[in-house]
Amino acid sequence: MTGTLILPDWLIDVPGSPPKQGWGVRVVGDVVDAVGPNDELRRAFPGDELWVAEGQALAPGFVDAHTHLYGLLAHGIPPPSSPSASASASSPGWSFLSDFWWPLVEDRLDHEMICAATDLNLTQMVRGGVTGFYDCTEAPNALPGCLAAQAEVVAARGIRGILSFEATERVSKTNGQLGLAENLGFIRKCQNVARSGDRPQQGEGNTQYATRNTLVSGLMCFHTTFTCSAEFIRQAFEWAEAEGALVHMHAAESRFEPEYTLKRFGVRTFEYYDRLGVAGPTMQASQCVQITPAEIEIIARRGVRVTHMPLSNCEVGGGIAPVPDLLAAGATVGLGSDGYITDMFEIMRSAFLIHKAYRQDTATMPANLVWRLATEGGARAVGLEKVGRLTPGWQADLQLIDAGFPTPATAGNLYDQLLLYRSRSHVRAVMVAGQVRVRDGVVLGVDEAALRARVHRAAERLWHGG
Ligand SMILES: [Zn+2]
Q: Would the pLDDT of 154 be above 60?
């Protein structure tokens, strides 16, 4: 079987480990088949297609381990509806949700708005080297069927996506059940597709996405301890366990939630989850900002998976997550955009810099570690298997980045150079599961102007109604 030899100047095969100069990879089908020095690969596989990437670095694609694709529609949403106009100093996390995000964004979303934002967002993400993501749609009035509609878009763009609906009882108990059922139905549909080996399935609605590939999957998701009852939370975990799926929730994003659980239940957020018996390796907790050493110990001991969103934590005034402590305790951590600023280079820069300033320690969060969080760490945090490294048998989810720096690149400075001085626009090519999605900096098969016009129309309706 012939393959493609990608021959760059530099290879990051195992994120965190030293980069290899003059090494490349062989891609066969949807996986990496071989890794080695470029000249050895050429000799070993003379019949392969050659992709010479001179002046470029080859790295695993980014995994945006937590996003809200619909969030694109709220970019620039006009004041006085913005959180800055209504934020309360006493509970910034609460006022962001109750005065702004719920009534003016989430509650107004419909399928067309979600799909329009998903399509443009995916285009921008893959343009910037993102090959996989986990998305959380919060739209209580878009039930049912919003995940199936969104999955069509994701599959058409050929990106590896995990979709979920953020079930909540804040609207009503009935609406909460609809949300959990939306996730369960979607998880089952995706699993059926994976088991059927890509065969078209007849007689079922909304399975077109499933016939194209198995890049799309689902997981269970609910909002928080302050919008969901204990019974509801246990139900989410029980349903997920039966399907072998993870369960996502936003956890301790600001001091509001731990104050709420302390007042209501006498314990902090993760102590409450542990008491419920749900803290464990199927728990996918995003944010984890306002947590104590005792909660970090619970997270590490129970194997809870964590996602870190340094920029959106700033946006909502939530604080600075104790990520270095979580990592030191052995927790699985990935990086995410939270649907805010979605350029993963900027997110890496913020993860690299914020903790140094906060801890007054230049040694914390080194570039190679941050690169690992943005790739393999994110994949592990959201349960993507064999994703995030470029070694034989792992998925060919990769990016080529312009490495023509003004100063010499070395094995000792490449992670820093790429993290500090590169952005989305420096990504030259992207492959997802062996398929080229970006070449020469252009997303293939996409009319971006048309996608942007569709989002403009959707944003007009979201902001002003109609
Ligand atoms: Zn979020």
A: yes
